[in-house]
Amino acid sequence: MTVTPLGIPRRLLEFTLDGEPVRAPEGSTILDACRAAGKDVPTLCEGDTLTPKNACRVCVVEVEGSRTLVPACSRRAEPGMEVRTGTERARHSRKVVLELLASSVDLSTTPRVAGWLKEYEAKPDRFGPDAARVDEEPRVDNDLYVRDYGKCILCYKCVDACGDQWQNTFAISVAGHGFDARIAVEHDAPLTDSACVYCGNCIEVCPTGALSFKSEFDMRAAGTWDESRQSETTTVCAYCGVGCNLTLHVQDNEIVKVTSPHDNPVTHGNLCIKGRFGYQHVQNRD
Questions:
Q1: Nearest to 132 by CA among 181, 173, 174, 92
Q2: 27 in helix, strand or coil?
Q3: What is the DSSP letter of 226?
Q4: What's residue 11's pLDDT?
Q5: 2Fe-2S ferredoxin-type domain: from which residue to which, for each copy (predicted)?
Q6: Residues 6+ apart with CB under 8 A from 191
Q7: What pTM does this model have?
């Protein structure tokens, strides 16, 4: 007999979303309620396994009585609140944020951004050719993953995943101030000389491709990376008895990267170096 845990029931609260009455479980964020209602509110820094940092400000919405726009990813829904997601003020704010991000970093590998730029009629080029950009060469100093800070939007998700929210390795942090702020390891050393344990959990949460598998980086450089041709198969890691779930991404009968389901109660999307990177023996056909 299979018993399905129901969890602790949460009381529903009612509020108004774009003029329509909605219900959401107590403790839900506005973004949770928007997604449940089928409303597409863009976000870059929000992650379903991390505490929101409110860094990107793309998900801002208008709340009746609030002096400023509020980030939907962290603002809790409250009974009786009136939320509007598509006002001119909110849309203009998202447009400017997208323009600033796209003018300063490379968003070419950020999912859905191209569609949002078009939807909000954002024009990053309007700042001109002299707009400051983070033009950094990718850092390829190990065989497992690549750091391409020219794509980094400073969402801090990698810092949180490496720090006290998951891994507790504290290998990476933010260095510098203002426009010179960067994600870096201690003393900005090569990754091989840092405290990194190569779990790859920072890659799992990176929204822009600033952190990527070396295999993906090489295939993109060669023009062979094609997600439309990739299949995903979830299995159980065989390295130890913890029971972590692995999702194998396969293209042309080769594993190209490994992720983990975020809703898995064992891993919550996190893995160790063996689970995330130790798949080469599967493809050894000698």
A1: 181
A2: coil
A3: -
A4: 86
A5: 11-89
A6: 139, 141, 142, 147, 185
A7: 0.88
